[in-house]
Amino acid sequence: MADFLSLGISETIVDTLRGYGVAVPTPIQEQAIPFVMEGNDIIAQAQTGTGKTFAFILPILEKINREATHVQALIVTPTRELALQITDEVEKLTADMEGVAVLAVYGGQDVAKQLKKLKRNPQIVVGTPGRLLDHIRRETVRLSEISFLVLDEADQMLHIGFLGEVETIIRETPVTRQTMLFSATMPPEIRKLAKKHMDSPEYIQVEKTQGPADNVKQIAFHTTDRAKQANLIELVETYRPFLAVIFCRTKRRVSKLYDALKAQKFACDELHGDLSQAKREQVMKRFRDAEIQLLIATDVAARGLDVEGVTHVFNYDIPQDAESYIHRIGRTGRAGMTGLALTFYSTDDRPTLESIEKELNITIQKQNLGASEREDRGRQNQSFKGKQANSSSSSFHPKRSGDKFKSAGSRRRK
């Protein structure tokens, strides 16, 4: 299996990826990055959740000219949410890189603020078709010198009705550009667009992200946001994880939960985008070495996190969609081991939970959090621990500082 260095990604960027716990390329990254590095146009048929964002961001960061003061890479997305997500990832990857600037432009955002930021000459612009056309007409975004054009989720742009706008944007770019098109499906209109505007593209197809592994047991607990913190502590003490990742929706919620668990003397730490690379690396090393057993993280910070021995995942805040759910619970049950994924949901969260179940064609076991459930959970956990013991020499222990629990560090799987 290739690593990022062998794909042509520099040590500087690879070190940044390692700080986020990303060490191994996904299949689409492994296939696409070499073609992009060589200057080829590519058509990638890939679902959301396959790692496609890094497949184009990483080689673009390697190839842009940091000294230049014009837009060199344009990434077109169907929604502002995706534009912001991509921009956030670029900002994190370039936090320690001098001379690289990225800007998101999308509808609903203050135009004056966008104009002010555009004057800072970002090399990378990420935007939605409508707002990009607005800037093109104002002559506040000039695309005549771009080297890279990315059309992300092209079929969604077709579905929304943006294909005409996309064609207009493409005509503003030089024919010498390198074009990358990503789409989950390939309807005739997208094939026609590719044939018209791409130069002998390489075709890559990656299968859709699969559903949860059979060796990850899933339970959803009905609760309220007010009770959630106490519920989490109760479940940690019930299930006694060896290593666990706890996912929160925002950086602020990560820090708030970290402070609460730390005050309760749990061996824990936080992982989110506001941490420096050095701090992220330090946290990841402590987690891998089982010096901490509860890692509280945001989705972006934990992207690609691959740590041996993670026995539990807690969705403290319910994931937004099926893709995020698969990404989160995939942190456990690695290498054939058993894992346990526990998700909190409120009454308001029920439609989201049902949507995840429907898309993945699964039924997640539901439980209420309360005294009447504790005995049942205890019996279930004993059964689950028995299964884990048959496949691993490690046990589940929530290590706290002090003497309340034995250290599990010495029990970590080798």
Properties at a glance:
alpha/beta, 7-stranded parallel β-sheet, 15 helices, 14 strands, 40% helix
SSE arrangement:
Elements: H1 11-19, H2 27-37, E1 42-45, H3 52-63, E2 73-76, H4 80-93, E3 102-105, H5 111-118, E4 124-127, H6 129-138, E5 148-151, H7 154-160, H8 163-171, E6 178-183, H9 188-197, E7 202-205, E8 216-222, H10 228-239, E9 244-247, H11 251-263, E10 268-271, H12 277-288, E11 294-297, E12 312-315, H13 322-329, E13 339-345, H14 350-360, E14 365-368, H15 371-391
Parallel strand pairs: 1-6, 1-7, 2-4, 2-5, 3-4, 5-6, 8-13, 8-14, 9-11, 9-12, 10-11, 12-13
Helix pairs in contact: 2-3, 6-8
Distance between the termini: 21 Å
Are there runs of 5+ residues with pLDDT below 50, and where? 371-377, 387-414
Structural class: alpha/beta
Main beta sheet: 7 strands, parallel
How much helix is in the residues?
Answer: 40-55%
Number of helices: 15
